[in-house]
Every structure is written in C-alpha cells, then in structure tokens.
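User: Could you check the structure of this?
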Amino acid sequence: MTNNQGKFILIDGSSMLVTNYYGNLPKALLFEKDPEKKEKLFSQIMHNDKGQYTNAMYGMMRTILKIMAEQQPTHMMFAFDTTRDTFRREKYADYKGNRGDTPEPLKEQFQNMEEMLKALGFAVMYDDHFEADDIVGSVVSKFEKEIPSFIITKDHDYLQLVSDYTRVWLVQTKQETADELQTKYGAEFGWNRKMTSIPDKAFEVSPSLCLKEYGVEPCQIPDLKGIQGDASDNIPGVKGVSSAAIPLLAKYRTVEGIYEAIDGCNGDKELKALATSWKEDLGISRSPMKALVEYRDMALLSKELAQIRKDYPIPQALDDFKLNFDKNKAKEQFEKYGFKSLMEKL
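Assistant: Sure, the predicted structure tokens are below.
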C-alpha cells in the first residue's frame, strides 16, 4: 500500500473509550461487585476540578496523540455507538442483551469525548439507528479505492471490512499477543517491530492473514458468526456446531451454500450420505446435521446480525475527513479537563 495518496485512519471510538475507561480505573473499583459500594468509590476515578470524570478521555486522547505522531494520517474519523436499540435489536430483541448498563462515570465521558473531538477538528459520526461499525463500513466502502484505509478497533466484526485497500489494526489485550501474532505471520518476510509502525497492542490484518489466523476470508466473517454465534453481542448462532463452521465454509463458502447442499438431499438416506461425506472428506467428527436443520432460522438471522451495513448515507466528500487538528482548541480542552501531561505532547 503506497502512501503517496495519503492515509485514512478510522477509529471505533466506543471501543477505544471503553478500553481506556477500564484500563484507567482504580483497582478497588475494578474488582468491586456490589453496586452501592461501587458508587461510593466513584470519587477515586480521575476527574477535573469541576468533578467531571476524565479517566477514559485522558487515556483515549493520549492514544490519539501517539497515533497521530507515529502514523501521520492525512485523514481521520471517529464513529461512536449511541444506543443498543438499533435496527439489529428490532430484528432480534436479545441482541447485545447480555451487556450490563453503562456505568455513569463512563456515560458522561462518552458525551464529553465526542464534544472534545469535534472541538479539536476531528470528524465524529454517530446515529441512533446504526452502530459505529455500520458507519465505518459505509465510509470505508465509499472511499477506500481513493485512499489506503486503516481501522482501529478491538471488535472482530470489523474483519469483514478487510480488503486490498483496507486493513484492520485489531487491538489485542496485551502487547505480547500483538507481537506474537505479528511475528508469526511476518517472520518469513523478516518482519520486526522496529521496521513497521503499527499502533500499540495492534495486529495488522490483511485478507491473507484473516484467512490464515481466523480460518475464513473477510467476506465470510458474517457466515462464521452465523454458525458459531458471537457471545459478546449475544448472537446465538447454531448450538454445538462451532468446530464444523470453518471446514463447512471452506467447502460451501456461505451459510446459504450449506443449506443448499442440505436442501439438495432427497430423504434421510441422502442426508445421511452427506453427513458421512462431511465426516470423511472434511474431517468433521461430530455431525452438525441435526442442529443445522433445527436452527436454520437462527443461522440466517445470526449472519444478518453480524453483517456490517455499507448503506449508511455518507454525504461527506473525502476532503471532509482531512485531518484538521486545532492546537489552540486542544490547549483549551486539555486545560478544561486537567490533562497537564498531554499539554507537553502538543
């Protein structure tokens, strides 16, 4: 990917803010289970002189300044989730139903972070009906052929956006994990950390690495989740079939392709023969046939829930995402929130 036409960095703002919130919480609060005791500890969270919570914002802003310094992007944007009641929940009421309420000190920082980023001159996008990944997917699919694009997130859903023009910098929990992954795939090309600049804790996923590490091509990620489900989003998938997903998708490409093969069987005898061929040719030990037949609707719904939309309306031109960082505004904002150590980084 050449850099003469610039570099577009798209950041999953919700993912980054949440990571920094929990990463910069006092230990006592992190391990406290009792809600009332938790609330009494809120005063220990980093805050400014007005009492506004700042631990997540501070961590995220520090990360952003580092990314800008190291990556020198020409274009940048942030996408945020505003609600869990998006079109996905209309299709499946339990979507993300396993997640607790957002803690108050984090809720407050979502709004303040969005406002601060806008004040600093960044493009910030969110919508009550769509999730951050739909917005990023729509922006990327509109502009990726004009400019090399890099998405920063912890969320594996985004892997479906990886292409010849777009890479996902998938943030790992630890730097060691990122280094191990990068070395595992980069060793044959003489990769080392000093040669390439990748954000902290991130692993760069290209189309070929997606297939090697996750067993499917980027476009098959929704199919994989259609069968395996996704516990983090409460997407059900098909119970007890997860290990068969990758070999089945290698053969049939899509969830629909698997069901075409099943529907092509006349009667139990042919179904049994198909199950046997899966065992012998694809190495699937436990037959997934019964579960696939029983949970067909769930498989198709789960795929649909995992599919990132690319039709969110993007009226902006590429130039609207040009990096336009206002240092004076940054000074004002950093003073307001008490980010003294970040002032020096300006």
